Amino acid sequence: LPVVAIVGRANVGKSTLFNRLVGRRVSIVEDTPGVTRDRIYGKSEWNGVPFRVIDTGGIEMDEEDEMGNLIRVQAQIAIDEADVILFVVDGREGVTQADEHVAQVLRRAHKPVVLGVNKIDHVEQHALSYEFYRLGFGEPIPFSAEHGKGTGDLLDAVVARLPIAAEDQE
Ligand code: GDP
């Protein structure tokens, strides 16, 4: 199945979005020393298109580490394993330094990135998403992981960037 990785700094709502998309989490054996990758994989589908989801926020590191390093590990796992990266930011906080850091790493990924602006719980707040244009991933898509608003638009954008499965082409 194609893989969608949810990436973003802490507290932007990655887990909330993951839980909305995925019915159950599955564990896998970790293959990176010191990094726990349990409970971050799940399955989802949108408009009949199935895909796997990775919540990189669920990655834990054994050793005390500055946040920048955790972001790097999260982004690297996404870059290695994802077909599409779902970059989540917090529309209420605006662009932060940590967002810029994530963006910088993702720009080197050469993978499709969909930029989702979370915590836009009300239509009147849509304008809060505009400032995220400057992260350089095209049109920011406002949504609310908690209330489910805009998640359809987000998934439309994600699915549109997924590779077409080989069996669909036959
Ligand atoms: P993560 O660290 O990126 O996985 O973020 P979480 O999913 O743990 O969410 C961080 C905080 O943001 C929690 O207190 C959530 O309840 C809150 N949150 C997540 N999504 C939304 C949303 O759509 N709207 C609002 N208002 N709060 C949200």
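^ guanosine-5'-diphosphate complex. The chain has a mean pLDDT of 85. The chain is about 30% helix and 25% strand.
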